[in-house]
Design goal:
The chain is α+β, with helices and mostly antiparallel strands. The chain contains 20 helices and 16 strands. The protein has a domain at about 500-695. It has a six-stranded antiparallel β-sheet with strand order 5-7-8-9-10-11. The protein has a six-stranded mixed β-sheet with strand order 12-13-14-15-6-16, covered by helices on one side.
């Protein structure tokens, strides 16, 4: 990893490289003093903010909340027993001394000394004091374990000394994801339904006690700046936001927290805010969703904690940075600049909720955002709608780590455990629940939650498309956002930057060596009925929609100002959905640092229905796990009602792909423009089964981070 960082440093202009080295050395030097101090004195803050935590979120109408009561009851029963399903782990009980199944053939046994003895010496007494506030029957969660591989990070390690990507099969994202504590908002919703007499739920005080205990357990077991869960500032910020929203929803439903909890909670929020400010993930060129999360998480803390000079400064800074980052990280057409549809969703969610909360906080002072901010957000939400396929699953362009900011209305499908094990190969060794037990499985490619939030903020006119109606949005998240929104923003309608009309004919291909010559024949006709073209040129996504057809072509920049951190070698790749069924789909991402070879296989051109040439990669994959070479420099040449034409230079010579559309067929031709005029016989594919067998990438489909289907495309 160090060699990759050096390689990237040498690729920068000398002045920028020198500035990076200087900033790194300054950060390391200042950290030495903080590390030394933390080893000898408690790192927990001694401050106890005076005043009440603010109120913003409201519990939605009980009829709307009750629609998901069956799933909500089942997942909260699992949460009450400390069963969590995180990044493909399956529902497992997370506790000290647990035995894990392993990941990718690697299994670790990392003993735990118990939560009270693991904290570093300087923080031990404060930690024990916090634990006295826990309920006697509460069983602590092991917050420091990767409960897929079994590897465990020491709780007494200073946060900057925490290693990751250092052992095969070890995934630091697992404890990070659990420690974001998305599940607390589900406990708050269950409390509201139980308090209103809905059948099947536990007594309301059980949900309140569990949320209270888990937060205190985390604070006691994760002293400020110690352990794996302080390593990434993004996760610190998302955790604080989820704590606050869950706490707010509990109170909105009539819950009351005790004074001891309130004191520890407010102090912990200050620690989170100060940590974020001291560890902002900012970079002059390559900052992205991590920095946006820092800003929005800080905004949430500043909005909720009692007002003083410090929190007011945080709020001013966060509002200013949020406004700037929306303009910096989202293109003029609303698409995100990281070249990933999943990270677009995450960043849009953060920006949308951050904007709504900021408006609620400063409503009586001044409007913190200009019209261009709202227009950019409306277009960002529209991008999410346009990338939802008729199959109900979103396009997977670039990386997908299933990242979310809040999980107020997650989408679940109910299986039996046996059915889930049969459907998903990552559960092949799963035994935590009996085969006949109910098994809720989250659908990470369902973006209706975000469309609901956007409709709540902008109004249902956001989705006035006959092919993507407001019925595609989550009613629950729409209602939650309506309760948060002070007033609908001005000029709320999207600019429709991605939509276009064209009657031009598709240009002919240049002469050269034919690499692909395929015709996909479709049963019936009328593929072009209701045809619409949608072009996100800044992102590099071109979509043809009709009443039967959804066809997407990826062709554009690799993102993050040329770093390509979350981009794949998918230039000129095609995805195809017909009559609501996926025929060709990007297989996803699967894993990051836990399995570098797997990561590269899912980033590879071979993982996509894209032009192929002698096994060569159009972009260099050897620059580092979160870097991609920009050799392809893909460009769209024409996008018309007849189809698409584009090219890239990833194979040295310009490689062209033409996609032509007729009433009953799709014709795909790839040409290496070397002037050779080497033809290739037409290959005809009839129907879905033959197309999937011939063109769907051989990699197992991964619909979310750490998750893989047992075979083929999802049904």
């Amino acid at each position: 990893m160090a060699s990759n960082r050096l390689l990237q440093l040498f690729r920068l202009p000398p002045a920028e490289a020198l500035a990076k080295v200087r900033a790194h050395l300054q950060k390391k030097w200042s950290a030495r003093e903080v590390r030394r101090r933390d080893r000898h004195t408690p790192s927990y803050t001694a401050d106890l903010p005076k005043g009440m935590i603010a109120r913003y979120f409201q519990v939605p109408d009980m009829d709307v909340l009750a629609v998901s009561s069956n799933i909500l009851r089942r997942i909260t029963d699992l949460y009450l027993n400390h069963h969590f399903d995180v990044l493909g782990s399956g529902w497992v009980s997370v506790h000290h001394g647990m035995r894990c199944n392993g990941l990718e053939g690697q299994r670790y046994q990392s003993p735990s000394d118990g939560p009270s003895r693991e904290v570093n010496d300087a923080n031990r007494e404060v930690s024990k004091s916090i634990r006295t506030a826990l309920s006697q029957q509460y069983v602590p969660i092991d917050w420091h374990i990767d409960f897929k591989s079994g590897y465990r990070w020491r709780a007494d390690t200073w946060y900057q000394d925490i290693p990751y990507g250092h052992q095969p099969g070890v995934d630091i994202k697992v404890p990070w994801e659990l420690a974001r504590m998305h599940h607390l908002t589900a406990l708050a919703q269950a409390y509201a339904l139980a308090a209103n007499g809905h059948e099947g739920f536990q007594r309301p005080e059980i949900y309140l006690a569990e949320a209270r205990n888990q937060i205190l357990d985390f604070i006691a077991g994760n002293p400020t700046r110690f352990g794996v869960n302080w390593r990434c500032t993004m996760d610190v910020a998302i955790r604080a936001a989820n704590w606050l929203v869950a706490y707010d929803l509990f109170r909105a439903a009539g819950a009351e927290f005790d004074e001891m909890f309130e004191g520890h909670f407010k102090s912990a929020l200050l620690d989170h805010g100060r940590h974020i400010m001291a560890n902002l993930e900012w970079d002059p060129r390559h900052r992205g969703n991590h920095y946006l999360a820092n800003v929005v998480g800080l905004l949430f803390i500043a909005a909720y904690v009692p007002s003083d000079e410090q929190s007011d400064g945080w709020l001013t800074f966060a509002c200013q940075e949020l406004s700037q980052e929306v303009q910096y990280q989202f293109h003029e057409d609303g698409s995100n600049f990281e070249a990933s549809s999943a990270y677009h969703r995450l960043s849009t969610e953060m920006a949308l909720y951050g904007t709504a909360l900021a408006q609620a906080v400063v409503a009586e002072r001044r409007q913190p955002f200009g019209n261009t901010h709202f227009l950019r957000l409306a277009d960002a939400a529209r991008f999410c709608a346009d990338t939802m396929k008729p199959s109900g699953r979103a396009l997977q362009i670039g990386d997908n780590d299933s990242g979310r900011f809040l999980k107020l209305a997650p989408s679940f499908r109910l299986f039996s455990t046996a059915e889930a094990k049969s459907a998903y190969s990552n559960l092949s060794d799963y035994h935590a629940l009996s085969d006949d037990a109910a098994y809720p499985h989250e659908n990470h490619l369902d973006y209706r939650h975000l469309l609901g939030a956007a409709c709540g903020f902008f109004g249902d006119g956001l989705l006035d498309d006959p092919l993507v109606s407001a019925n595609s949005a989550s009613d629950l998240e729409r209602e939650i956002m309506i309760g948060l929104t002070v007033e609908q923003p001005p000029n709320a309608s999207p600019t429709r930057a991605g939509q276009m009309e064209s009657t031009a004919q598709l240009p002919a291909l240049p002469t050269g060596r034919c690499l692909t010559n395929i015709e996909i024949r479709v049963p019936g006709s009328s593929l072009r009925s209701g045809l619409r073209l949608i072009a996100y040129k800044d992102f590099g996504l071109f979509i043809i929609r009709s009443e039967r057809l959804y066809l997407a072509v990826r062709c554009g920049p690799i993102g993050l100002n040329g770093r390509g951190a979350h981009a794949h070698n998918d230039q000129l790749a095609v995805e195809l959905t017909l009559d609501g069924e996926d025929w060709i789909s990007d297989p996803g991402s699967y894993l990051y640092t836990a399995a570098p070879a797997q990561r590269d296989s899912y980033r590879s051109v071979k993982a996509h229905f894209a032009p192929q040439l002698d096994g060569r990669e159009p972009g260099n994959l050897n620059l580092g796990m979160f870097y991609l070479g920009d050799e392809a420099k893909a460009r769209c040449d024409a996008f018309t009602q007849d189809g698409f034409l584009g090219h890239h230079y990833g194979f040295g010579t310009a490689t062209y792909r033409q996609v032509r559309l007729t009433e009953n067929a799709i014709h795909v031709t790839d040409v290496l423009a070397d002037g050779s005029e080497a033809g290739l016989p037409l290959r005809v594919l009839n129907g879905r089964q033959e197309t999937v067998r011939a063109l769907q990438p051989a990699l197992v489909f991964s619909p979310g981070y750490g998750i893989r289907m047992s075979n083929g495309l999802p049904a």
